[in-house]
Amino acid sequence: MMLKKSIPLLLFISILCAVASAQQKDTLSITLENVSYPYPVKYFSVQTEGQDLKMAYMDVPASQMSNGRTVILFHGKNFGGYYWTNVIQALSKRGFRVIVPDQIGFGKSSKAFIHYSFHQMARWNKNLLDSLGIQKASVLGHSMGGMLATRFALLYPQNTEKLLLENPIGLEDYRQIIPYVTTEEQYKTELKATAESIRKYYQNSYFVQWKPPYEELVRIAAGPVNSADFPRWAKVAAMTFTMIFEQPVMYEFPNVKVPTVLFIGKEDKTIVGKGLLGQQEQNQYGQYKLLGKQTVAKIPGAKLIEFEGCGHIPHLEVPTEFEIALLGSL
C-alpha cells in the first residue's frame, strides 16, 4: 500500500521539477548572461551620475583582406547586438571591421537608473571608438538605433563616414501624435508584459510574414519577464521610452552634413506608443512608404532604398536584398 501511495507523489514531484526546469530554461537574466552572442563580447567602462556601468560590445575584424574601414551598428529598442549576425558576417567578408555595441540599458549592458539621452549615448559610442583607435566609421542604425545614429552624425560629423538608417523610428514627432504618459505610467505598462504579449507584438509589428527563425528573437525578448530583476528591466524600458518620446531628431535632418542612405521596408507601420491610439490614428501615422520619401527630402543629398513586401527589420526579413543594398551603399 505504501508503494501505491508513493507513486502519485513521485509523479507529482517529477512534474514540479519539469515545470521548474522549463521555467529556468525560459528565464533569462536582464543582462542576458545566458544568451550566446555570435562573436566574443567585451566590455567598455562608463562612469555617469556616480555609477560605474558596463557597455557590452563585439569587435569583429575583417575575415577577408581588410579595407581599413569600420562600420558601427546601433540596435533597436527591443533588441541587442545578437540580431545583427548576418549583417556582421556580410560586412566582415567584404573587409570591414564591425563594432556592435549594446547600448547602456540594453542587451548585455548595465540596466542603470539614469537620465537616458541620445546625446549621452552618442558620446559613449564616440568614446568607445576612441578607445579602439577608430577615428572614423560608417554608422548603421536600425529603429531606435536610427535616432541614435542621427544624433551621432550631428554631433560628430568629422567622425562619421556615412549615415545609414534602416527603418528608423522618430520620423514623426510622437509628442504631437501620442497622448503623454509619465515614465511611471509607462513602467506600470511594461510590468504587464508576458511572453505571449511579446510574441504577439513581434508578430504583428515587425514582419509581413512570420517565420520560425523569428521565434529566437521572441525567446530572448521575453526571457527576462520571469527574472527576479524584471522590475528593473521594466523600469529601464520605461525610461528609454520617455527618451524616445521627448528627444526627437527629425527637426534636425536638414542639418545632417554626411552622406546618408535610408533603407526602408515599405510595409512598416511602426508608431512608438501605438497602443495609445485609436484605429483611425493608427492608420494615419507610421506609414513608412510615405515617411521614407518625406525624410530623404529633408536630408541634403540623401538616397532612399526601399524594399517591397518588407516590414520593420529588412536585414532579417529580406536579408539578401538588404546586404546587397548595404554593401553597394558603402
Word description of this protein:
With 330 residues, this protein is an alpha/beta fold. The chain is built from 12 helices and 8 strands. It has helices spanning 2-26, 85-93, 118-131, 144-155, 183-190, 195-205, 215-222, 230-246, 279-284, 288-296, 314-317, 319-329, and strands at residues 41-48, 51-60, 70-74, 97-101, 137-142, 160-166, 260-265, 303-307. An 8-stranded mixed sheet has the order 1-2-4-3-5-6-7-8, with helices on both faces. It is globular and about 50 Å long.
Summary of the model, kept short:
The chain has 12 helices and 8 strands.
- Estimate the global geometry from the Cα principal axes: globular
Mean pLDDT reading: 93
CATH superfamily membership of the domain at 39-177 and 249-329: Alpha/Beta hydrolase fold, catalytic domain
Main sheet properties: 8 strands, mixed
The CATH class of the domain at 39-177 and 249-329, by name, is Alpha Beta
Strand order of the biggest β-sheet? 1-2-4-3-5-6-7-8
Please give the alpha-carbon distance between the first and last residues: 77 Å
- The stretches of 5 or more residues where confidence is low (pLDDT under 50) are 1-25
Query: If you compute it from the alpha carbons, what radius of gyration comes out, rounded to the nearest whole angstrom?
Result: 21 Å
Which series of helices and strands comes N to C? HEEEHEHEHEHHHHEHHEHH
